[in-house]
Amino acid sequence: MSSTGALSRSHATREATITTTMTSPPMATAPGPLDRVRTLPSLTGLRWATAMLIFGHHLMAVNYFGGNAGVVWGVLFEAGKTGVTLFFILSGFVLAWGYKPRQTARSFWWHRVARIYPLHLVGVGLALLAAATLVPEIRTDGAAPLVANVFLVNGWVPDWWQAGNAASWSLVCEAFFYLSFPFLIRPLVRASSRVLTVVVVASLVLAALAPQIAAFAPGVLSSASTPLLRLPEFVLGMTLALMLKRGEWMPLRLSIALPLAVAGYALSEAPMLPGTDIHPGLAGTVGFYALLVAALANADARGRSTFLARPLWQELGRVSFAFYLVHLLVIASVSSGWPDGHPELPWRQAVPLALAAFAVALAVAWALHKLVEIPAQRWLLRFDRSRARVQPAVAREPAEAVAAR
């Protein structure tokens, strides 16, 4: 995946917070069913950590740092684009964890619209404003790709994948995941442990084969942005959530899963198999990220919440969807005064500039979260006819995310 294509990676949202009205998780340490556990706060905090990887990657892509500092920053954050992979796994995991069998598909879809659409529309509006003023290079050529972005289908046409708000390409994937979820979750819930294990293996294999599939597909596909080729990451998250919730599988300890996730981060930059477009390193990235998500969820579910569950991380995690949608626009706007929008500064000047972009992006995201995301979501959920039968998601419903990411 090129660094240019990575300018939009990530996504989505507070999807790691389920609901906050259930009883406290059990303190057991042995494997066992976790049907009564609803809150997974460490996954909310993980969303913010993931957003920071994507933010760091986009600072690299826009060349805030020059010289040796730019080289070091590139080594650290070239793989930051895989933060969207983590968002997609989180999205599948959290939605499957919070699955309500009595909820209709229509109700589920309306909750998803209420969750992502208000901020998405604001993000498109801000992108159009930035394109008309400070960042003309992100202007969308033609009405068709812009309309496609508004309706979250532009990612199906590779040439349009960054139309409108460039960051919202991942929402196109999430929209497809959400559309598919009611049809995927029912057979997975009924599946045996053996079948779920096969699904896990197949998801990892498909992740490695995605670039090869895109290369040989009769149509024009992108392994990075075509929703169908990113679906295995979402399905993997769903499957591991169901296995953990049933008590049929005990994840690795966090002390092991975290170093493996770091290794997965590095593996995303490993070369493809010689003479092919098969990317086994990407399967390692997806697999190790999924193990980290499961390890954090297991810690929360068994009463051993991590530092990611602390209040500050929770608040930042809830703002992460808004932050993701605006951060690239802010990065590009802040750097627009330099030639071609690429500062390439020594680290002593680049660090303050990067901190300024971060502060502006966080302030805008916080305002959008409080003034748009929460009230719009609450208002839209009033129109869910099944809300009297199924407890509605409110401001802290899972995103994303994807995150939304």
UniProtKB/TrEMBL annotation:
Residues 42-368 form the Acyltransferase domain. InterPro entries: Acyl_transf_3_dom, Acyltransferase_3. The chain crosses the membrane at residues 71-95, 116-135, 166-185, 197-221, 227-244, 251-268, 280-299, 319-338, 350-368. Signal peptide: none annotated. GO terms for molecular function: acyltransferase activity, transferring groups other than amino-acyl groups; hydrolase activity. GO terms for biological process: lipopolysaccharide biosynthetic process. This is Peptidoglycan/LPS O-acetylase OafA/YrhL, contains acyltransferase and SGNH-hydrolase domains. It comes from Microbacterium enclense.
